[in-house]
Amino acid sequence: MNLDNLFKSSTNKSKSELKEQDLVISESDSIIESIEELYAIEGFAKPLFSKDLQEDFWSDKSLKIRNVIIDLRDKDNINEIISELSTKLDVDISIIVMGNHDSIKLKSQLMSLGANYILWDQELNELLSAIMSVSGKKVITDNKKTRIAKRVLVLASKGGVGLSTISSLLCYALAKESNLKTLMVDHDSGALNADMFLGIKGLKVRQESKDLTNRDIDNAIARTYLSKSIDKLDYLMLEKNSEISSCHSETLYNLSNTLIDEYNFIIDSMSLSSFDELDKATFQDRYHRVFIVCEQSVSSLRSYNLIKKRVDKLEHQVIFSQTRPAKDYVIPLDNAKVRIKQKDSIDIFYESGLEKVFVHKGPDGVMETKFSDPIRGILSILTGKIIQRKRKFKLFNK
Description:
Helices cover 36% and strands 18% of the residues. The chain has helices spanning 29-42, 56-59, 78-88, 104-112, 125-134, 163-176, 194-197, 210-214, 219-223, 248-257, 272-275, 280-286, 298-311, 333-339, 354-366, 373-383; strands at 20-25, 48-50, 64-71, 94-99, 115-119, 150-156, 182-186, 226-230, 233-237, 265-270, 289-294, 316-321, 346-348. Strands 8-9-7-10-6-11-12-13 form an eight-stranded mixed sheet, sandwiched between helices. Strands 2-1-3-4-5 form a five-stranded parallel sheet. Helix 6 packs across helix 16.
């Protein structure tokens, strides 16, 4: 599983240069899985993992270790272990120790040995802060969490390509199957389908106002505009006000941005008309990953080519979505890919009766269908997790 470079990369190193990696040492499979997920979400290069202190890592000249993260939560002789370890390591390698002892004395002792001691927490905020500190990256202060939500844009090339369905299921999968706090920001107030797709009952839509657009928004105000779907999944949308419609997407961004340290992912589900409100510099700095939803029609392909010029060099991926049977499209799927020069697209094929499944079984029911397989593919791109659909087996065929 390759978790490297999931988001924008800021370095261009030559092939001859050794690639820096972190090493994680822990006997716990659950800790290893959590840290691997953290690195994938934050866009860090996938670390190496070991369950004990192996000499091979220090003698392997093909590796360039940057940080050694060692799990010593159940150890009493932490000083002895770190003292021995520090003698084996190059001075350029940083040591980060995870423990359960909330001791200033222990922290000072390990600091004198050149190690950074952090108190273990389930959210891994302390670990992320330590990694960013030793890497010389800016760390959020004022007692805010160091984890900042990765912002993802799911953009429709035209109306009717299944934007709400795809965005909703992706957010649902991030929260339900990957256990990641997710916020869906719906920029399309004209198509109120996402509440059904997310299983939200009795959605009360609030209208955008001049007061909301012009005032300073804090996270307490922003939370009042959220609707709850399931645990770890919230939904944000506003009804457009015709008097200030040109500010609609920016108002939604300002609301959601005040909550950026409370989520792992913020997914912006955006129609083409809302996208037209944004200038090029704005969305290039705003998003870590962009998915453009297309269909195999002339209008969608033409629209994609115009979007591509605006997106420019920002990394993006194409999702081909079939909202009707393949035979109803004039352009075959393979031909459509050739026309826009996109070989590696994510293909979501038409499935009859999908709306019926949504109505009767909700998003859980849809996640059991083959329609959800490409959604899990997007999930893997964003998180590094590969989660297979649970298939039902029948003993006898009728």
